[in-house]
Amino acid sequence: MTRRGRKALDGLADDLRDHIERQTEENLARGMTPDAARRQARLALGNTALIEEDARAVWVSRWLEDLRRDLRYALRTFRRSPGFAATAVVSLAVGIAAAAGVFSIVNAALLNPFPFADIDRIVRLDLNDSGKPRGLSFTARQLVALQHSDVFDGAFAWNTWEMTLTGQDFPEAVGTQYFSASGLDVLGVPPLLGRVFNEADGPAGEQPQRVVVLTYRFWQRHFGGQPDAVGQTLYLNREPYTVIGVLPRQYFHADAEILVPIRLTFDPNFAWRVQARLKRGVDPRMAEQRLQPLFDQFAREAPQRFPKEARPLVRSLVETQRAAGFVPPLLLIFAASLLLLLLACANVSILLLARGTSRAHEFAVRAAIGASRGRLMRQLLVESLLLAFSGAVLGVAAGYWGLPAILRLLPPDSVPVENLIAVPVNVPVLLFSGGLAMASALISGLSPALFLSRPRLTATARTTGVESRRAHHILLAAQIALTVLLLVGTGAAVRGLIGLYRTSLGYDPRHVIIASITLPDRSAPTTSHTEWADRATFYERLRNRVADVPQVESVALATFGIPPESGQWSVVVEVPGRDMTGYETPIVQRISANYFATMKIPLIRGRVWSDSESAGTPHVAVVNQTMARELWPDESAIGRRVRMPDYVKSSTYFRLAAPGSDGWFEIVGIVGNTPNVGLHEPPAPSIYVPYTLMLGDSLNVILRTSHDPLSMTRSIREAVRTVDPNQPVNVYTAEGALASAGWASERFVTLLLLGFAIFALMLAVVGLYSVVSYSVSCRFKEFGIRMALGAGRGRIVNAAVQPAVLAIVAGLFAGLALSVGLNKVVAQWSIGNLNDPVVLVAVSLVLFVVTMMSAAIPANRAASIQPADALRTD
Amino acid sequence: MPAHLDILGERRLPSPSMSSRADSGRLELLQGTLDLLILRTLRLGPAHGHTIAKTIERGSDDVLQIEQGSLYPALHRLIKRGWIDFEVGTSENNRRAKFYRLTAAGRRQLAVETSKWDRLAGAIARILRPAAAEGER
Predict the structure, then answer these.
(1) A473, A479, A491, A674: least CB-packed within 10 angstroms?
(2) Looking at the 3D structure of chain B, how many domains does it have?
(3) pLDDT at position A467 over 70
(4) What is the mean pLDDT of residues A472-483?
């Protein structure tokens, strides 16, 4: 209300009194008796209270005024029953915190993954190979052509690799993103500190400036977040680079810690992935059409790199992010969190009903003195609104403190949640929480409001008790059904996770360490090991030196690490006299002869080449069981000859081929399967060849140790340093890699579900307890009479719990039916199986025991009623 | 000659149980009439609430009877719109009461409302007595 309004209303009573006085005087003057004069004056003016209310309504919306009054009243009633209010608020708070927390992850990962200006116009360029997306790289000349096309505002080449950071204890491999100098401008990422590089820092065709931009993470880790990092020097690949800027925390593009300008050479043998910014008003489909002539030209110039029908594929970065693998589990969790909130609402409904029935007297009185049904309903809804918004505030606060901890459970770099850890609560999340509070107020408040506001001035207390108890039990059964669904889902996820841990790896990850080595970038001036023989010697020395470390039992070399990470590279295999279309291209792994012994992968048949053999680069290969079975189902694979055209290609820095390869290999052995393309996937066909045939610029040294592998990382680093003091090395354990790469997302989903399920069970306990104790207190007198008439304890307890037991059983069966029915829907989200009888039985047992216990405690109280007390109460 | 006409203000009916649909029709028709009369009365000079009511009644030769209860909410409405202002004073017999007076905006509004009313009254008159209206011209 305005000050003016308050002032105007202030004197209203005086005004009215003055009005009556004047009218009275006038009436007296007309000759009325004093009493009649005053009476007439009052009558003419009418009800002054009503006039004041009307005048007030001019200044204050009546609606708001009533709301304020209802809120005050609600607060007062909650203060009178703090236990009820606290239970209801905490229930809703946990529900809202869960839903809003998961929503903020969904928002950060799916709805708004790259929080930069017009980010939906950033697209990646690929090839549409008759419907299937295929990665495509562009030469510098093609990039320039793309930059000048009329669909893009800008285009940039990028690549990730590792740079060696020296000038500290151990050289360190740092994930590096190479960008066209204009790349960060095209992305539209503003620097947090300093500046980002621009065109002048690395013009196409020239050696770029030695400048580096740091990600927030690297800046924190390496410079402790000090602003004077800008201007300092980092030694990367043994060259001094000047730090020119730091990126904001939300920057998420690729798994990299530092960014440097790329060296764009016009050598047609070099090509990069390209991303671009669409011009305003150009959508990806339009861009594809208009790029077609350019792609046709590219295909004419370099036919070997394009399929016959080279069609461009333009996809927005946001869109591809939304198609990523973590999306289904995230949506599953989101659905589960909403289910949890629904349960919390049902629970609060039950509490409100139980409490409302004991307020029946109050409502009857209010109705009797003229409160309309709408008015009563509004009062009840305001109460649930107050509960829900208190819950929301508490829930958002909990999310603010708790979310970063939960996010650390996520697989590293799987979801762009850096900005979420920085700012756990943002505007969309607040809006969503507000909406949730509103919805939960309606859901939890509606049935009590409808039920309790029903006018029944004439009905006796007894019948209202029976009616409301029926409403309770229906709600209770619904709550239990949904709880069962959540429990079954959780049980299925737990079973799935256990199954995953038990997946036969086909090798023994215990006591296995991987030391991963990447040679310095080819552009580094001090590059060594560019000749096959030189590199082979270097790798051999590394292996020997690491083998000398005490407690190392065996050392093997492999190009592509351990399963399931190892399955990223496949190779075309030709079998004489056979059409290979329809066969999967096998996974290739280049290894030293003792790889299988070190990993403890069983040799099924035949033999593995020996170390002395592989020095002479024999063209022999070993295949896994899947490959042997698929290609030669009825005959032995041993002794077969296959051709791998990849192995006659000329050398590049990335892969130095041994001299004199004709691409023909003889299969000499069959080994056991490993989950080489992922823990959930059946093993793919796989072929192993001697690593000496093709020396890559990265290498994994795999060690089996006799002691705790974690304690050995330092001695392994020392060993590598004695071979080359500037060679960085990553050391990690096989078990650690499995946990974070293979199992982390399942673990995340399962842990969250488990938390939800435990809370849902708690809610069910609270709901049951309150319903049964309420119904016992309602039937206090009845039980007293029955006991006075000779009913035994057992009968009384029975009578007290019977309706609850019915609700439990009905809810349980409904929940089981719901789970089985929803199995198909949930299966699309790919975790667990809701039909699993073990899970169904276990959930039923747990739920039954827990709920029966929470019903039995208050029911037991019924049995201890003293009949005399019961009869004496009103 | 009819005894007198009631002027209805924007008045909430005391009983919520009564259907208000028919009443609201009447309200709409005469909405603002009381406001217009208050403004017109205050053009003569500042006045107390009671004086305003009496002035209207007498000015219409007691044809118009103000429902006094609706007067005060109407005054507050006009204050809120800034068409009238008030000051608290002490009246002849030592009672505190408000003097209401027209503001500049109220004066302008009065002109607008008056011309609106004239047009409305003229239009209604033409419809009700077409011949007489023509004849008058």
Answers:
(1) A473
(2) 1
(3) no
(4) 87
Indicate the average pLDDT of chain A: 83
- Given this model, what pLDDT does residue A102 score? 86
Dist. CA A705–CA A549, nearest whole Å:
10
- Tell me, yes or no, whether A144 and A177 share the same domain: yes
pLDDT tier for residue A873 given thresholds of 50, 70 and 90? low
Interface test with B, best of A14, A17, A19, A21 (most B CBs within 10 A): A19
The whole-angstrom distance between B83's CA and the closest CA on chain A is 13
Which of A251, A440, A99 lies closest to A107 in space, CA to CA? Answer: A99
- Look up the ipTM and state it: 0.76
Q: Is B44 within a domain?
A: yes
* DSSP notation for A346-392: HHHHHHHHHHHHHTHHHHHHHHHTT--HHHHHHHHHHHHHHHHHHHH
Residues A155 and A194 in one domain: yes
Residue A43 structural domain: 3-60
How far is residue A574's CA from residue A840's CA, in Å, rounded to a whole number? 49
Tokens encoding A150: 């009329």
Quick check: pTM over 0.80? no
Of A424-428, A456-460, A690-694, B123-127, the one with minimum mean pLDDT is A456-460
User: Which one is predicted more confidently, A684 or A109?
Assistant: A684
Residues A654 and A787 in one domain: no
Contact call for B98 and A21, based on CB within 8 A: no
Q: What is the mean pLDDT of residues A154-176?
A: 83
As for how many domains chain A has, the answer is: 4
Q: What are phi and psi of B126, to 5 degrees?
A: -65, -35
Query: B97 CB near a chain A CB, below 8 Å?
Result: yes
All residues of chain B having their beta carbon less than 8 Å from the beta carbon of residue A46 are 67-69
Position B123 in a domain? yes
Interface residue B89 vs chain A (CB under 8 A): no
Cβ–Cβ < 8 Å for A173, A728: yes
Out of A18, A51, A58, name the one closest to residue B50 (CB): A18
